[in-house]
Amino acid sequence: MTPADIDPQLLTPAVEAARRALRRIDDKDIPARLRDTAGRSGRLPAPFVKRLLAELEASDWLRAEALLEIDSESDSGGASASLLFLQRPEDWVERLEDLAIGHREALELSQIKRLETELRNAIGRAGRLEEMVAIAERREQEAVSGVEQRLGAQVAAHRRSQARLKSARDRLAGRLSSSEEEVNRLTDENSNLRKKVEETRAEKEKSYPPTAPDRVRPPWSLAKPLEIVRHLDDINRALVVTPTPSKASRLEPEPTRLAGPPPASGPTGPKRSCGS
After folding, report:
1. Residue 89 gets which letter from DSSP?
2. pLDDT at 96
3. Which pLDDT score is estimated for 89?
4. Would you state the pLDDT for residue 273?
5. DSSP class of residue 240?
6. What is the pLDDT at residue 34?
7. C-alpha distances out from residue 33 to 5, 8, 14, 86, 189, Å
């Protein structure tokens, strides 16, 4: 049986004992192939472990030096296998094979338990993830439903607003049409009134004799309401009685005199009224 047929982990005590022996012996006694291994500290990489086991397999001297460093009182499987590998009693191969088989079965069982644990953890995580996915889907559905409801409410509000705007436009259009009709009616009325006034004025001018004096025209115009208002204000101010500063005026008020235009008279004849 060669070291290549044995799991290096089973012979870890033999490897560590050989490393301690290499650090203990003189540098000149260390085999050339193991000098880089002897100078290393910490965990030994797998290629160096295989090389050291191969040297222990080939060198009785190195196995004897390693036996001086191994803990023979340890009852672990690795210590027993390392002792068998270093001491090499009569039936060491069969016994080492049995230990290697037991070690391999223990490793496989440990791996199986580790995988089962990882599988249970994975199943648990999968269950929690499924719950989270279900919660997320439910929340998403609720959010979608809420968005649809809000969108429907906004659409309905927009339609109501459009209906109110259309109704308001229709009412305004009706009022505008009525206003336009009223303006046209008032315009026609005003035109008719103007026409009648002009006709009446023309007829009165025709009824005056040729020698009649010029008719006094009123200081206002029917087409200018502001002038009528001003003239009425002038009449009201003329009707106000102003007392004189004399004593007689304090006892007896003078008769009110109405202000008005002077009577019309012809250039040579007697005075006439406007109706004569």
Report:
1. -
2. 80
3. 82
4. 42
5. S
6. 82
7. 22, 19, 18, 20, 133
DSSP 215: P
Per-block mean pLDDT, blocks of 10 residues, the chain (276 long): 65 86 84 78 83 85 86 60 83 80 78 88 91 92 88 90 88 87 86 86 74 56 71 78 52 48 46 41
pLDDT at 276: 34
DSSP secondary structure letter of residue 39: T
On the CB side of 185, how many CA atoms lie within 13 Å of its CA? Answer: 6
Who contacts 253 (Cβ-Cβ below 8 Å, separation ≥6)?
Answer: 241, 243
The SS3 call for residue 224 is strand
Residue 84 near residue 95, CB atoms below 8 Å: yes
Task: Count CB neighbours of 53 within 10 A.
Answer: 20
Q: How many angstroms separate the CA atoms of 142 and 140, rounded?
A: 5
Q: Are 209 and 272 in contact (CB under 8 A)?
A: no
Q: Which pLDDT score, from 0 to 100, does residue 133 have? A: 94
Q: Quick one: tokens of 246? A: 């004399």
**Nearest by Cα to 13 from 58, 87, 76:** 76
Residues 100, 54: Cα–Cα separation, whole Å: 17
pLDDT at 129: 92
Distance CA 66, CA 86 (A): 8
**Token digits for 39?**
């100078």
* E strand or H helix that includes residue 186: helix 92-207
Confirm if 100 and 6 have CB atoms less than 8 A apart.
Answer: yes
Question: 3-class DSSP state for residue 219?
Answer: coil
Alpha-carbon span 68 to 112, nearest angstrom: 37
- pLDDT number for residue 136: 94
Question: Are residues 81 and 8 in contact, defined by beta-carbon separation less than 8 angstroms?
Answer: no
Which pLDDT belongs to residue 18?
A: 86
Q: Which residues contact 258 (CB under 8 A, 6 or more apart)?
A: 238, 239
* Cβ atoms within 10 Å, residue 27: 9
